[in-house]
Amino acid sequence: MMGTPVNHRQDKVYVSTEEFVPPDHFLRSVDEIIDFSFIEPIVTNHYCHDNGRTSIPPITLFKMLFIGFWYGIRSERQLEKEIRANVIYRWFLGFSLLDPIPDHSTISFNRHKRFKDTTVFEDIFKEIVRQAQEHRLADGRILLTDSTHIKANANKNRYIRTIKTERVAHYLEELGEDVQKDRSEHGKKR
Q: Does 60 reside within a domain?
């Protein structure tokens, strides 16, 4: 018997982003190990405290940049889109499913204007490395660098759209192999 498709897209449900983050997820580990509160004192002198609109909390701004770094998101526009769509990123930043995500231009302004000609990024990086070393996540004995030169594609009016043709059968075979592997690892019948 064939089932009927159900559309629950408009259903209103009460959930927490906490429910969607696996216990062994990388960002959960980072959240447990790294104390980001050190960011506030480093950046406080770069903000006006008596006028203007309320800013994105600096910890949130830098966590957004860390997501971009850790997951290889090379565009601030793309970073905004990825955070909007990824529940785990929202959880890491402290956003609910309904919270608006800061605009990519805000991230860009802070990188190019507010913290220009400062040591803010270096200071924050050094503290993250220190905390990672303290928790034995890094020891500084091996240094790997990527010196690949990549041409920027930041013009929002010039996109190259390509259609990727991939055999569906090959994809389904890979899925089947992964399911069988998972079943055997968990002692289930094939």
A: yes
Q: Is residue 132 part of a domain?
A: yes
**Which of 13-17, 68-72, 86-90 has the highest mean predicted lDDT (pLDDT)?**
86-90
| 165 band by pLDDT with thresholds 50, 70 and 90 | low
The answer to whether the CB of 89 falls within 8 A of the CB of 67 is yes
Give how many domains the chain has, as a whole number.
1
Once rounded to an integer, what is the mean pLDDT over residues 140-147?
69
Range of the structural domain that residue 28 is part of: 17-140
Is the pLDDT at 22 greater than 90? The verdict is yes
Nearest C-alpha neighbor of 33 from the set 161, 172, 130, 108: 130
Q: Is 100 part of any domain?
A: yes
